[in-house]
């Protein structure tokens, strides 16, 4: 027998079983329900096809209990309240009827608090794909533009990829306490301007900070558990080095420094909350994984509360 025939047979036997149990309820002996007609009842009941018979029997028993308790509830309502709404009344009428019976109207206030804006720190070895992942993460997120004293790479845009400043300008930003965190990386300064974080958090945006491992450690000491720390990794060392070579921005000497640094950095993985493996050719999955982490964090009962 084909798949279609088998599932048809299953659903037929399910509905026969259901009819046998439903008919044992003696609905006609019960007072009519003001809220739910027996036709609506049968429309709402659902019996899973397939599965072991014992599972399905348990499911049917569960459905029957729901039927019985609904009938009991509606009977109680009927006994205590002589203003029976007609069975044909629409949803809005029934809602008003129930509100009148309760003596108060239903609140439209959200039942759970609005999630706090998040600060998401993304770190990982050089060339692992931090920028590539962050650029594709969905809207509602502000990727903080870092200030740097390093030279612009081909294709980079000032104010979009980085704020390119001179070393002197960077040092005055440090003096004015305008940076949340800064570091000297491969002889160049990189730092996070505080004002941008304030501005976007106050508008309800989640904040993404992209820092190296040293920066992540500093941010952990400043923000503690109020921020989320994600470590981005390649699937193996070879994939990481190939990615750096493909970028065509590194001399052999700089490549050697970055590889040695990456080996040290990977040892800090345990200081992070999450790890995302950015596999070769699977950038999209890594982006989805980061988005899933953000979704899960938004659903936390105990929200993180980042304050800068
Ligand atoms: N999953 C992937 N598969 C293949 N190539 C990737 C993947 N992710 C990123 N890349 C490529 O790897 C290179 C390095 O990525 P990217 O510049 O985003 O790394 P990074 O971690 O931001 O580096 P750095 O810290 O040195 O700035 C880029 O050419 C990018 O397009």
From TrEMBL:
Residue intervals of the Guanylate kinase-like domain: 117-295
EC number: 2.7.4.8
EC supergroup of this enzyme: transferase
Signal peptide: none
Keyword Repressor: no
A Pfam cross-reference name: Guanylate_kin
Swiss-Prot/TrEMBL keywords: ATP-binding, Kinase, Nucleotide-binding, Transferase
Family the UniProt entry places it in: Belongs to the guanylate kinase family.
Cross-referenced NCBIfam families: guanyl_kin
Protein's name according to its UniProt entry: guanylate kinase
């Amino acid at each position: 027998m084909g798949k279609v025939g088998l599932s048809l047979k299953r659903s037929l036997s399910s509905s026969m079983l259901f009819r046998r149990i439903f008919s044992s309820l003696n609905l006609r002996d019960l007072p009519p329900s003001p809220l739910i007609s027996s036709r609506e009842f049968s429309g709402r009941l659902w019996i899973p096809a397939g599965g072991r018979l014992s599972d399905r029997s348990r499911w049917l028993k569960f459905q029957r209990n729901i039927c019985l308790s609904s009938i009991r509830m509606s009977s109680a309502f009927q006994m205590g309240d002589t203003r029976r709404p007609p069975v044909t009344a629409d949803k809005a009428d029934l809602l008003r009827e129930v509100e009148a019976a309760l003596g108060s109207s239903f609140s439209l206030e959200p039942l759970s608090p609005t999630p706090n804006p998040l600060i998401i720190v993304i770190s990982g070895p050089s060339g692992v794909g931090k920028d590539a992942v962050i650029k594709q993460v969905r809207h509602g997120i502000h990727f903080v533009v870092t200030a740097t004293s390093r030279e612009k790479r081909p294709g980079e845009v000032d104010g979009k990829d980085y704020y390119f400043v001179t070393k002197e300008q960077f040092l005055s930003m440090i003096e004015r306490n305008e940076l949340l965190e800064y570091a000297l990386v491969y002889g160049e300064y990189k730092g996070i301007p505080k004002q941008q974080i304030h501005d976007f958090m106050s508008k309800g945006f989640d904040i993404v900070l992209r820092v190296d491992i040293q920066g992540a450690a500093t941010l952990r000491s400043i923000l503690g558990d109020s921020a989320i720390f994600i470590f981005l990794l390649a699937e193996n060392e070879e994939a990481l080095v190939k990615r750096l070579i493909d970028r065509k921005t590194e001399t052999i000497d700089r490549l050697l420094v970055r590889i040695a640094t990456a080996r040290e950095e990977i040892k800090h993985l345990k200081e992070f909350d999450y790890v995302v493996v950015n596999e070769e050719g699977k950038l999209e999955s890594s982006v989805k994984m980061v988005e899933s982490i953000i979704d899960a964090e938004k659903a936390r009962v105990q929200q993180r509360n980042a304050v800068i």
